[in-house]
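Why Fumarylacetoacetase-like C-terminal domain-containing protein? Reviewers of the renewal asked for a concrete example.
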Amino acid sequence: MKYQLFAYQSDAATPATGLLLGDRAYDLSRAAKAASLDLPVTTIDGLLADWKLSNVQLQTLVNQVAEHPSEYQAQLLDLNTLKFAPPLQHPGTVYAAGANYKDHVEAMARAINIKPPVDPRSEGIPPWHFIKAGRGSLAAHKQVVKIPEGTHKLDWEAELAVVIGRRAYRVSEDEALEYVAGYTCANDLSSRDHVRRGQVDPSSPFYYDWTAHKCFNGACPIGPFLTPAEFVETPENLDIRLWRNGQLEQNSNTSNHLYGVAEQIAYLTQRIELFPGDVLLTGTPAGVGMEKGVFLARGDVLKVWIDGLGELETTIY
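Here is what the prediction returned.
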């Protein structure tokens, strides 16, 4: 039976973990105790450390709750009143794919007045990634994210996020998805006016600043739910949308990936080992603000929706 995990703020210092079954949410720790199930850890970070075992234990709990829902009334949570936390409290590295939807690549080329590139595959070009700061970048569902100081061109990027559940090194494309724990929604917020330093000569090695462009507090809203990989038939056929203040800005499908999730994982692991809790942002489709010269302002509300995974909301301040 399908289940999803989420984190929420509780009275304890560490956020608690929730278990979502359909439209009913439960506190994971209290539900496991009621089921007499010994879960050594209940944080999502901890569960990922031995995801194979955790997934078996969670499925046992899910089956018990589904078969005897009346016995778990005391563990129910109200999703409408919860304050969500990022699913991961201690994420590993966040790898983000650049230029991974053909329509986005073409639109951005027009926006910055360069020749649209040909299909990189035809030139034998592999995927490429940059890194976003992990713990400092993550923001929770319905969290307010402040516009970074000095940023006037803050942009949105709806993305499918992949959470790694096993150590992966030099894996093949055919086996790559076996290392995925689950999927969630993400928004790769970007300070477009900081990617280049206008006062620096373009020939200087100090001209580009990808850290300022992609890394700031709240730069990576993620969640609200982590959906185990077994409940996603394929990550390459998921509708993905983003609304800004109720207006649809991005509307695509992951089938438009230039490089699929398996290919990205296989590529990354040829040069570096991936660990449980690492996150892979898989690229964004056309419709970002940079393509239209429209950027975020205080009070804007963004909603990222991916079919079967949920909806992630962020307010800009």
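The chain is about 20% helix and 30% strand. This is the kind of structural detail the renewal will allow us to pursue systematically.
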